[in-house]
């Protein structure tokens, strides 16, 4: 019995050998990531100065402040759960040298760096990760200085500043200047300008990136570079191409734009029984061609009818910003959109900063100080986007309304283009959606219910509406707006060196500009240090060799 090894024993023997072989491999992996982590910490402390210990701005998960620091800039409850992947460390730089150190240490240890400014990314990619690998959040909120130069009407704005802080600062210096950027005051400069950025002056002045003249970045080698030092290709890429694929942006230098002392806003609501369909149909022929000083957005929502019990209807809310007084506005509206029946009574004249408050849903008489408040009442949110290049017919609109009522909660925001947007060439910045676009659609669903069923319902209804809209929107590629981050687009790869996957969302966000973005990426960051779920991939190494031949 002892002499012969039974097949069973042999099997056991092999299994044991197999286990012996397997065990060290997995523990090596664990040791490897701990070593990396320790190397990262050591690397950071190597960059400390006697005056400033870098360890004071590093939060490990065992630090009692870690949850508060992490949650402070989570703006979407979908990513505020116990199962949301969390960073190994959060670094909150106070100095530009801290950002340089974080980049160099990420390069040394290959631990992924996520960059967060205002945290408003709609799919949370600035502070979560879809990869199993550990990651670090570089949280820019302390770097928020704004330096206005009234002689040149420009300003250096650090990435961690919010739009509200910028608007406040401009208005406290001048009554006749503004900046064309988004309407939500807590949005961060870093992600907003890095992704394009637009607001209610886009028909007059274009996007935020159309009014950027310089910037300061930390590149992949830890160098601080301005526009001149980084060169025009990289400057082009970090103003609209999703800066996080290329560098950490420390600050942008923006050009302020003139605004009149009096601007006018209005808000008019129409339900289906008040000709909403006819008005929205007509709006498509007017809104992108009317006076450039007028931005007339339409919010479209399924609601319960006020007149008929138990009946659902669609409400179209025309909410507008006009760079002029109400008399001038009435002339424009009576001439070009009399169907809306706008009355002088509907118009509210105010200063530009009051219009900022109005658009942010504050009473325009509120003190502008509220724009400095960084708190944000977050709910669960999902957003998507589309572009419309051919007006949708009345029967088309009716079929869409029917679908929206059936789905229940998902709404639209129609944002008119035209004006300055059509004059700027599609390749001037990475943002390609210029001439030929009548309007952009934002799909929007927000909810409070924490249940899994609610989550599934709302996520699936917004996706179903997006799919239903296919015949009415841009095709090949179906275009999308980078600032309305949507991880449903393309395959989420979290920065694997995957050119083909990157090309799917890349063409939707950037169309013909995708190629140049890839070339810039390959030139400045071939190792793909700056990567995320939807970053610009470098050319695959093989094709790089091929290309050089
Ligand atoms: C309530 C709300 C309202 C909005 N309104 C508008 C609007 O009116 N107009 C509009 O255009 N958009 C709007 N957006 C979208 C917004 O512009 C984008 O989500 C933008 O990316 C947010 O920037 P952030 O710095 O707050 O976000 P973050 O989540 O911090 O960052 C977004 C992306 O940018 C990267 N990034 C951030 N900082 C840097 C940096 N310093 N260097 C390099 N990369 C960086 C991040 O890594 C991430 O990929 C809105 C979003 C929300 C939630
Ligand atoms: C830290 O600095 C020391 C001394 O210069 C050096 O030997 C070491 O390699 C550095 N470690 C890291 C992780 O950067
Ligand atoms: C996240 O959850 C914490 C409690 O766990 C809460 O205090 C905080 O307000 C939440 N933030 C968001 C954006 O949901
Ligand atoms: C709807 O439009 C028609 C003409 O297109 C008009 O006769 C009617 O008065 C309008 N109804 C309302 C409620 O505005």
UniProtKB/TrEMBL annotation:
UniProt-listed SUPFAM superfamilies: FAD-binding/transporter-associated domain-like
Top-level taxonomic group: Eukaryota
One Pfam family in the UniProt entry: BBE
Annotated signal peptide: 1-29
Gene Ontology terms, MF aspect: FAD binding; oxidoreductase activity
Keyword Flavoprotein annotated: yes
InterPro entries found in the cross-reference section: BBE, FAD-bd_PCMH, FAD-bd_PCMH-like_sf, FAD-bd_PCMH_sub1, FAD-bd_PCMH_sub2, Oxid_FAD_bind_N
Cofactors required: FAD
Residues in FAD-binding PCMH-type domain copies: 83-259
Record flagged with keyword Lipid biosynthesis: no
Record keywords: Disulfide bond, FAD, Flavoprotein, Glycoprotein, Signal
Family named by the database record: Belongs to the oxygen-dependent FAD-linked oxidoreductase family.
Protein name: FAD-binding PCMH-type domain-containing protein
Species annotation: Camellia sinensis var. sinensis (China tea)
